[in-house]
Design a protein that fits this description.
Blueprint (H helix, E strand, L loop, with lengths): L1 H24 L19 H4 L6 H4 L3 E2 L2 E3 L5 E4 L11 E4 L3 E4 L1 E2 L5 E4 L7 E8 L8 E8 L11 E3 L1 H6 L9 E4 L10 E12 L8 E15 L3 E4 L13 E8 L11 E3 L3 E2 L6 H5 L1 H16 L16 H6 L4 E3 L21 E3 L8
Parallel strand pairs: 2-9
Antiparallel strand pairs: 1-3, 3-7, 4-5, 4-8, 6-7, 8-9, 10-11, 11-14, 12-13, 12-15, 15-16, 15-17, 18-19
Length: about 350
Amino acid sequence: MQTIRLFALLLIRVALFSSLEADAQNSCENNCGQRLTTCSCHVTCEPLGNCCQDYRDYCLQISPQSGTLMGGTDFFTVNATFKPTDKIVCRFKSEIDIEGYVDGERKAHCISPLLFENGRVPFELSTDGGQTFSRRGTWVSVQHNKYSYDFKSILLNATKWQYYGTPNVTGNLTLLWKKSPLFPGLAVNVELWGYRETGEPYTDNWRAEWKFLYTLGKGVPNTGYFTFVPKPAEKPYSDWEIGALRLTNSNESVGIQNVRSVWSSSHALAWHLEETFRRDSAAWAYSKCLAWHETEQTLPNFLSEIADCPCTLAQARADTGRFHTDYGCDIEQGSLCTYHPGAVHCVRAIQASPRYG
């Protein structure tokens, strides 16, 4: 009798182990994108009707599905729900960790980070503070110039911003944005961020950098516009010649990355350059031109690696998969095309040189 009882217990344990093993083999945990033995965790499973039972829990659908590559978009899980005590962490490209949160409807939220690329970017989600990542999703990083005007701030009279300080270009500058639903608060911060590249071009020490410079306005009323009179910046801030403005909720500390934010287009920061520029902008520009000419002599020849230019204006405007608008010469925005005399519209290739970036 004792032998029979032990044998029965052994059979039960084997059955339980087999059941657990089968469940693991038919679960989407760590298996998103895969087709399993009896069900699927592939994106095609829903129209085919063969998804594993936990497909929506581990293969995440999010809203919105895309945002500007500058970061700052708050997205949330559509179908999966979580416990209020879960410690949410989103990991982009297997290296960029962003702390998230669970809202009152048990949806997990994360803020998209700054990404130096366009296209589909994989991310993972952890509920234990980043110890394990068993859920997967895809974020679409959009070129900022192609991003909807509903979700970015607008430089009113962009040409004036970029030529401020040159002869006869003075006065107020105005930034516009939509009040809701971007910022539920009553006030916003207006920040200036700068962009530059350091190191020798096309070498391993070549780096791109976005950096918070200073605040133009803190606790600005969330009316949808901000007007100010620019003053020449002091060094080292005036050394930054390209940048963008960022809006954040006023309850956020200034200069903090990866918070809900709205960006302007990147532009030449003529309006904040040092007094030397305002005294003689032509001489300042000429010295920069000479410096660029010297640098250009050392650059490799990458023309053979980039996409051929579109042949017609219609093609340039239609082929948004390979080209995006040059903000300084945009027929839709009424640009003056100062840098391209005789042109009415210019585009830039989205795909860089495969070898030289």
